[in-house]
């Protein structure tokens, strides 16, 4: 363990004990919790920004060091076909397909003093410092809040439910807009208790605060969970495929329902589904990390797991493939080769994996990024590979990736119309970067 002090410009500071092998990102999270502040980055006394994915030891941080906390961490969110970036100056830049929120030009004058961003699959919502809300994207799927605009005041929190937004006001009232498919029916009166919503092709499942599950929609796609309702207690995680749902209970057991061909029937593997720590859904099947040894058990349409796979820490999935991140940092993939199920380069020293509909991107421990899968969905990053260094964060839409570097630069690749080409907003992104660096006292580059 080493002792590190993290200080704000105001003089307020916190002293933290942390492992030298922990990442800079882990230290940022600890500091944010203790200081109750959003941090953009940590910097050395000489002004060098520390990449979040680096281990503290690798970044040169030593016992007794004092790091400066840079306020106003930028926030990057994704819909299915666009990205939005909240700058440290409180302004927002978005790009990608207009029907997914890629064009915010008509509300640009309102996108100032923004505190946080939220996304549904087709729209974005910005919560401003004065408690008001600004939305854009598909008008029927969360992008138009005009019918409830007068009610959106003193907003304290925004939640997103696939195609719908819900804003909680200071007086406790909940204001909802977007598609009623995800917030109607049996869940309408219980929206405040909803913790998670998952959607199959034609059904919805909601996980409530008490660990129960409520479902609605077409029964062939998981909309009817009555056959397993007595088992749906103490649920801590919920996942969906195209036609089924799977829920992880607090006791490590799994409950599945819906189309058997899409993973709705786990009876053939129920004896193996013990001590499950994570669930992941692919297009037509599920996979689970089981036991202290990190075994992977899969069922449904995409269930051929590589023989002997163990030591798995986490799973990621496209619509046709899985990627397993092992404890030692190497990655094993399987499934449809055209959807990321095959990779021609060694996948070692991986910190995190993100996925589009048909490609993966791995953030490595040296802050570089490796991508593979369908080129049109972000599987080919060769055109920007030389720019993918000192990366702090990677996000994915359905067809593109975006990387946020430690120096604030934004790098995009993949489907051009769905966020993979940020050329039209590079001037705005550069302006946001300059404002952030100036506010932080760093040199403009």
TrEMBL record:
Residues 2-71 form the Ubiquitin-like domain. InterPro entries: RCC1/BLIP-II, Ubiquitin-like_dom. This is HERC1 protein.
